[in-house]
Design goal:
- The structure holds two protein chains of two kinds.
- By secondary structure, chain A is mainly α.
- Chain A has a single domain, classed as VKOR domain (de novo design (two linked rop proteins)).
- Chain A has five helices and two strands; from the N terminus they run H-H-E-E-H-H-H.
- In chain A, strands 1-2 form a two-stranded antiparallel ribbon.
- In chain A, helix 1 (4-29) packs antiparallel against helix 3 and helix 1 runs antiparallel to helix 5.
- Chain A is elongated.
- In chain A, 42% of the residues are buried.
- Chain B has two domains: 1-30; 49-216, Glutaredoxin (3-Layer(aba) Sandwich).
- Chain B has helices at 3-29, 69-84, 104-116, 120-129, 131-135, 139-152, 157-163, 167-182, 206-216, and strands spanning 49-51, 58-64, 89-95, 190-193, 196-197.
- Chain B is 55% helix and 11% strand.
- Chain B is elongated and about 90 Å long.
- In chain B, helix 3 runs antiparallel to helix 4 (120-129) and helix 3 runs parallel beside helix 6.
- Chain B starts with a helix and ends with a helix.
- Chain B is an alpha+beta fold.
- The mean pLDDT of chain B is 90.
- In chain B, helix 2 links the parallel strand 2 (58-64) and strand 3 (89-95).
- A five-stranded mixed β-sheet of chain B has the order 1-3-2-4-5, with helices on both faces.
- Classes of the chains: A mainly alpha, B alpha+beta.
- At the A-B interface, helix 1, helix 2 and helix 3 of A face helix 1, helix 2 and helix 9 of B.
């Protein structure tokens, strides 16, 4: 159980870390060379697959949008705006992000057959963001 | 506006600025010079040992000598390309045994003979794995060694012995060498991506980069 303030700070910091990871991947997806990948060639295999884009949009770009939205929401959350509305939005965005992450990780495991380290790291960060929201929510009620 | 709002807001703006700057800086730093040459050579894609579909967008041709140590060194990079782009790349192996390698041609013949029994790639891998061992052997010993490898692969020994002496098998290797010479190949391994020679000065990792560049076209 954590306070709403602490939860919001955690979400903010995690969003910035996620933003860095997504930006790095966005850069790597747009250059021709091999991706710096601690787990071997998984990142290259995932990038080369047809699932590296969703509705024509590059997945790392969606990641940037997701983390940027989460970060902006946590900045707004500190303001005197109706916090419940902001918190609801945070829950909505985080749940969407994690759900999409589950879908992508499922693709990596069962369809592509290779894991991209940075994608999995981003998935873990999104789960941590959701947990930070959930734990604060419980405290509130 | 609370102090925390200001702090988080400024931190966010700075982070975004830093990331944008970083991506911009890295993109500018990256060389846009192409790794493949500009001349497109006409290669006979009907010839050679192939992995991958004929309709693959990229045809990666290697002129290689089974006795050349650099060709062994290139193997991980080739395997990487094959693993990353299984559908987009067709890999074609062509023989180019160099005159200074006394068993290069014989090894090529054994690989082709194994290929007639459907095990070219298995033999190719085994020859590369054991290259140091057989390169140091005497004439008769090398032939016995190659036969030993085919046995390990469960191939019919008599058929192998007969195949390596057949004219059409020799002609296939000669045709590969002739085509390599026509294309200006003077060292092994030499790679062509859709007919354009790959510059390997930056190392064998250039292969995946060149393939990725070609796929973007």
């Amino acid at each position: 159980m954590i306070s709403n303030k602490l939860s919001n700070r955690i979400i903010f910091i995690l969003s910035l870390v996620g933003l860095a990871v997504a930006s790095f991947l966005f850069y790597e997806y747009n250059i021709a060379g091999t991706i710096i990948c601690p787990t071997g060639q998984g990142c290259d295999i995932v990038r080369a697959s047809q699932y590296s884009r969703f509705l024509g949009i590059s997945i790392p770009f969606l990641g940037i949008v997701f983390y940027l939205t989460m970060a902006i929401l946590s900045v707004i959350h500190t303001h005197d705006l109706p916090r419940r509305v902001v918190r609801k939005l945070q829950v909505l965005v985080a749940v969407s992000g994690v759900s999409f992450g589950i879908y992508l990780t499922f693709l990596e495991a069962f369809v592509i057959g290779a894991f991209c380290f940075w994608c999995v790291l981003s998935f873990i960060i999104s789960i941590m963001i959701l947990l930070a929201i959930v734990f604060a929510g419980k405290h509130k009620t | 506006m609370t102090t925390e709002t200001k702090i988080l807001g400024v931190t966010l703006i700075l982070t975004v600025g830093l990331l944008l700057g970083g991506v911009f800086f890295l993109s500018r730093g990256g060389s846009s010079q192409s790794i493949t040459g500009t001349t497109v050579s006409q290669i006979d894609y009907a010839k050679g040992q192939k992995i991958g579909s004929d309709s693959a967008k990229v045809k990666l041709v290697e002129f290689s000598d089974l006795q050349c140590p650099a060709c062994v060194a290139a193997e991980p990079a080739i395997k990487r390309v094959r693993a990353v782009y299984p559908d987009q790349v067709q890999f074609i192996y062509r023989h180019f045994p160099l005159p200074q390698h006394n068993y290069g041609r014989e090894a090529a013949a054994f690989a082709e003979a194994a290929g007639e029994q459907g095990k070219f790639w298995e033999m190719h891998d085994k020859l590369f794995e054991t290259q140091e061992e057989w390169s140091a052997l005497g004439d008769n010993d090398a032939t016995a060694f190659f036969l030993g490898l085919t046995k390990q692969l469960g191939l019919n020994e008599n058929k192998i012995k007969q195949a390596v002496t057949e004219d059409n098998l020799k002609a296939r290797i000669d045709a590969d060498i002739a085509e390599g010479q026509r294309l200006g190949v003077n060292s092994t391994p030499t790679f062509f991506i859709n007919g354009r020679k790959v510059d390997l000065q930056g190392g064998f990792d250039n292969l995946s980069t060149a393939v990725a560049e070609e796929l973007k076209k």
